[in-house]
């Protein structure tokens, strides 16, 4: 049993366990789409708009990195912009392998490169994600208001109505049983926490980490320039919307959509990225295809848009991550050579 647990914790096993889900979502998105039709959707793509989208996407990396850096640098901490950007890009890459593991990955990298405790960096990410959740809800509400007749109907008919309709008496009973099971598991956890050797070790670990974790979560309260954090957040979501808009302008089949439809694409794409698939692979494509069908965009064209948006951004942050790694490697070699010459 212990060996089985060790195998399940291995990163490669985690990737293989989740990969079929991403493959299934990709299949659902690409089924009944001929390759020739899909490739034809890219013909006539405007390189100028694609270039602008790349620049905006790059700006979004920088804005998110500097916003995270601001959270980490309260109380005289000194995390550089480069370390924040490097950690962020590394987290994106880890998410391609194991969903949601990127948050821990980026915190681990920054903690190794700086004097900041891992628990504190994790606390800042918890705060950051809470802000992102609130921002997502606000942007969703804005999209509904701007395009109530189309996007509001889409949300109700495609998401909410099927969700509520699926709640049969059997499913309600299963959910209640699940809730009771989770509650009992928490009771067992707290019992173990308060008794025995396991509880002593766990309490010792928690007492050691909770102060640093709480310090990270409180970072937004201790910010001296809270208005700057708000500006960064507005810029970040502005970049996301402009990326959706400029990519729509790059493809002939979506060039007529406009800003309101692009805002809706941003919302459905964000929810697609929340689904626990590797880096949103499949889930993002399926969500975008479902919405663009409402806008009258043919499935091959909608998939071309989703692929250009999603895979284009993946390629971009992998390139930037490689540059960060190269810069770090060259820096280490340079410092090593300098130290060697100094010893001579």
Q: How would you portray this structure in words?
A:
By secondary structure, this protein is mainly α. 82% of the residues lie in helices and 0% in strands. The protein is built from 14 helices and no strands. It has helices at 2-9, 11-30, 35-40, 47-72, 81-97, 101-113, 118-146, 148-165, 169-194, 196-217, 226-250, 259-274, 283-294, 299-343. Helix 9 (169-194) packs across helix 10, helix 11 packs across helix 12 and helix 12 (259-274) runs antiparallel to helix 13 (283-294). The longest helix is centred in the C-terminal third of the chain and has 45 residues, at 299-343.
Sequence-ordered SSE layout with sheet pairings:
Layout: H1 2-9, H2 11-30, H3 35-40, H4 47-72, H5 81-97, H6 101-113, H7 118-146, H8 148-165, H9 169-194, H10 196-217, H11 226-250, H12 259-274, H13 283-294, H14 299-343
Helix pairs in contact: 2-13, 4-5, 4-11, 4-14, 5-6, 5-14, 6-7, 7-8, 7-10, 7-12, 9-10, 11-12, 12-13, 13-14
């Amino acid at each position: 049993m212990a060996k089985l647990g060790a195998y399940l914790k291995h990163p490669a096993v985690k990737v293989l366990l989740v990969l079929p889900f991403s493959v299934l979502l990709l299949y659902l998105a690409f089924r009944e789409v001929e390759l020739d039709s899909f490739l034809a959707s890219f013909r006539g793509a405007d390189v100028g708009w694609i270039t602008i989208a790349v620049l905006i996407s790059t700006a979004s990396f920088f804005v998110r990195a500097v916003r995270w850096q601001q959270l980490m640098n309260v109380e005289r901490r000194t995390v550089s912009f480069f370390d924040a950007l490097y950690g962020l890009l590394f987290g994106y890459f880890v998410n391609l392998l194991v969903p949601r593991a990127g948050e821990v990955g980026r915190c681990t990298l920054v903690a190794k490169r700086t004097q900041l405790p891992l628990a504190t960096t994790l606390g800042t990410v918890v705060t950051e994600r809470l802000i992102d959740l609130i921002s997502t809800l606000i942007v969703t509400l804005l999209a509904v208001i701007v395009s109530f007749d189309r996007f509001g109907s889409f949300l109700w008919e495609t998401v909410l109505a099927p969700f509520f309709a699926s709640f049969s008496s059997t499913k309600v009973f299963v959910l209640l049983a699940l809730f009771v099971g989770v509650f009992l598991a928490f009771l067992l956890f707290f019992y173990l926490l308060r008794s025995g050797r396991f509880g002593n070790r766990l309490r010792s670990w928690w007492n050691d980490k909770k102060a640093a974790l709480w310090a990270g979560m409180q970072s937004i309260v201790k910010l001296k320039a809270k208005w700057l954090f708000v500006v960064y957040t507005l810029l970040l979501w502005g970049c996301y919307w402009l990326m959706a808009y400029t990519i729509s302008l790059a493809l002939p089949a979506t060039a007529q959509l406009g800003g309101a439809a692009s805002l809706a694409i941003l919302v459905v794409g964000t929810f697609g990225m929340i689904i626990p698939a590797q880096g949103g692979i499949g889930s993002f494509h399926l969500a975008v295809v479902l919405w663009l069908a409402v806008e009258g965009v043919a499935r091959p064209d909608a998939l071309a848009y989703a692929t250009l948006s999603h895979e284009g951004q993946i390629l971009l942050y992998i390139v930037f991550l490689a540059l960060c790694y190269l810069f770090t490697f060259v820096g280490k070699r340079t410092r090593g050579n300098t130290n060697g010459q100094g010893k001579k």
